Amino acid sequence: MTTGMKKGLTAYGDAEFSLFLRKAFIKAMGLSDDALNRPIVGIANTFSDYNACHGNVPRLVEAVKRGVMLAGGLPMEFPTISLHESFAFPTSMFLRNLMAMDTEEMLRAQPMDAVVLIGGCDKTLPAQMMAAASADVPAIVVPVGPMLVGHHKGETLGACTDCRRLWGEFRAGRIDAAEIEAINGRLAPTAGTCMVMGTASTMACIVETMGLGLAQSATIPATHADRLRSAEASGRCAVALAAGTGPRPSALMTRAAFRNALVVMQAIGGSTNALIHLTAVAGRLGQRIDLDEVDRLGREVPVLVDLKPSGRHYMEHFHWAGGVPRLLHELAPWLDLDAPTVEGATLRTRIDGIDTATPQDVIRPCANPIHAGGSMAVLRGNLAPRGAILKQSAASPALLQHEGRAVVFDSLEDLAARIDSADLDVAAGDVLVLKNAGPIGAPGMPEAGYLPIPKKLAAQGVKDMVRLSDARMSGTAFGTIVLHMTPEAALGGPLAQVRSGDRIRLDTAARRIDLLVDAAEIERRREEFVRVGSPGAAGRPDRGYAALFHRSVLQADEGCDFDFLVPGFSRRD
Ligand code: FES
């Protein structure tokens, strides 16, 4: 097998000349023949001045390089796209597949015997997992780690559950402009990913559970020395992978590993986004995430980790309570502990002998969960024939069974224009409906599912309402919010047929979301949709990545990957 500098030679029709030329150029970096003959470990550097969550990446790269060199390898750092949630227009999800393609192609194009993938902010770990699954270069993932918590007037604060909660207080007039400005400087006090159980934390826990990263790599705070030691150990591990003694991503991303990931996703009160990302990663390997199994696990697996937004604590508290290994110990009845890990062991070896005696109140025992019924419920019904998701652990129990009048917004622009209007005909028991915020309609399926409570209701003290959309929601958000309604409105999904004033019933116990309009009227509206289309949907772009996205993106139940990246998938049109 070709290794090191001889891998993937540039095609000149003369392999020896290609190698001669490659070495001539790389020697300009001052590398010796001894260095160039070592196993090569690529390091995907996702540092960017636009990505504060990745602010510690330069030090992590340094630590990984140290580990690689201590184990006798040659580290080769290279850049890829980096995505931060607040610095990606129109939404980072629009760019996840671009990052996955960039990373996959760089893994293929450049000579490396193994790779260390450093990621963290929401879409970066999923993109790297998708790339690793497709390229199948031996890989280890190093999450950047969570931020430390902030403090304000004696209260502990965290991005971004408290960003949303306190912004809601400001909108309702209970916090003034000066105070919200002070809070703004305290919500994200260090580098690292959001320290609640948002998408970044969820995906980091999944990476660790699937054995793609080392034990504790999900939870060590971004700024702690242990994070650097974990990066160094990951560098050492990568050299073993480069020598061919460890499993490739395809050997780690087994059906059992995906099921373990779904169990953990439920038990941590994980982000609903993780379901889309896991579906996309599995799809790269020809596997399917079965929504019925997700719901079954959601009924069985209790929420054990007491973190915001479902609970009270933050990631650093989860870490000191024992992190993922201790959680896996509690979840053992649901897990396949023989699933392999990147260091060539199994999940079982990671939980053997862990400390379960030290008292802590962050990782609950199964006998005392924070939510008995699991985190996510999969809904169907005439409004979501291919499924919708409700994070019931972050919802208001009183709204889980609810019938109300629809107040419909045709698009994000329509929502922004009317939600706070004094003229908006809305009451606390209504159901807010947002259309055309799905993968194609928005485009990019933004995290717009957390529709704001209309200002006039917020001022009356209304904190939650049933909200429906084909959008996603940040894992840091909370409320009785039905997401990922599939097929989306822009494709003529049933959501497109809802009109203001219709009755809608959410029946979480029966796992249904239904439009209470007779079938003949729904069909009449569907025929009208076929004639005139959806008034709020984005148009078809005619160039560049946006055109590729529009033509190729799949629906939420297919992971929103591009059709041409999924083995055996046929084009949508
Ligand atoms: Fe980067 Fe939350 S914004 S993880």
Characterize the structure shown.
The chain has 573 residues and is of the alpha/beta class. The model has no long low-confidence stretch (mean pLDDT 95). Helix content is 35%, strand content 12%. The protein has helices at residues 15-26, 33-36, 57-70, 92-109, 124-135, 161-171, 177-184, 199-209, 225-242, 249-252, 255-267, 273-284, 291-300, 315-320, 323-330, 347-351, 412-418, 455-458, 519-532, 544-552; strands spanning 40-45, 74-79, 114-119, 139-143, 150-152, 155-157, 376-379, 388-391, 401-409, 431-434, 466-469, 481-483, 503-507, 512-515. The structure holds FE2/S2 (inorganic) cluster. Residues 53, 84-85, 121-122, 159, 193-194, 198, 200 line the site of FE2/S2 (inorganic) cluster (FES).
Approximate shape: globular
The biggest beta sheet is recorded as: 8 strands, mixed
The total of helices stands at 20
For the termini, the CA-CA separation is 40 Å
Beta percentage is: 5-15%
Radius of gyration based on Cα positions:
24 Å
Sheet/helix structural class: alpha/beta
Q: Could you tell me the number of beta strands? A: 14
Poorly predicted residue ranges: none
Helix content: 25-40%
Mean pLDDT: 95
Walk across the major sheet and give the strand order: 7-8-12-11-10-9-13-14
The hetero compounds bound to this protein are:
FE2/S2 (inorganic) cluster
Layout of helices and strands:
Layout: H1 15-26, H2 33-36, E1 40-45, H3 57-70, E2 74-79, H4 92-109, E3 114-119, H5 124-135, E4 139-143, E5 150-152, E6 155-157, H6 161-171, H7 177-184, H8 199-209, H9 225-242, H10 249-252, H11 255-267, H12 273-284, H13 291-300, H14 315-320, H15 323-330, H16 347-351, E7 376-379, E8 388-391, E9 401-409, H17 412-418, E10 431-434, H18 455-458, E11 466-469, E12 481-483, E13 503-507, E14 512-515, H19 519-532, H20 544-552
Parallel strand pairs: 1-2, 1-3, 3-4, 9-10, 10-11, 11-12
Antiparallel strand pairs: 5-6, 7-8, 8-12, 9-13, 13-14
Helix pairs in contact: 3-9, 4-5, 5-12, 6-7, 8-11, 11-12
The structure holds FE2/S2 (inorganic) cluster (FES).
